[in-house]
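Worked Example 4.2. Consider the chain below.
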Amino acid sequence: MDLGAGREAVESVFGAGALDAPSEEEPRRRGWFRSEGRAGRSPFTARGRKVLELSLRESLRLKSGHIAVGHLVLGLLREGEGLGARVIAEHGLDFAAVRRAVEVAMG
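Applying the procedure from the previous section yields the following structure tokens:
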């Protein structure tokens, strides 16, 4: 996988610097996508950026050409430690079974 091409794909959707870590000088944002004049900074946590990266990899693996909700779910499953993964586990669902069902639903 060409990571440069992956970064370009993510930045074309989410803006320049979407995968960059915020500087330590930047105060923590509250609410959805609040940039307050800091254009180009990522509104995502490190885990959120990881899930987006994994979602992109799932999209490339499936040769989709875009990132859909299913790819995001597959990225959450692949990351395996965040809130999304915990919710799936707490509902007694098997990650492999959810993965298969999502892949079938996506075609």
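The CA atoms of residues 22 and 87 lie 27 Å apart. The radius of gyration is 15 Å. Compare this with Example 4.1 before moving on.
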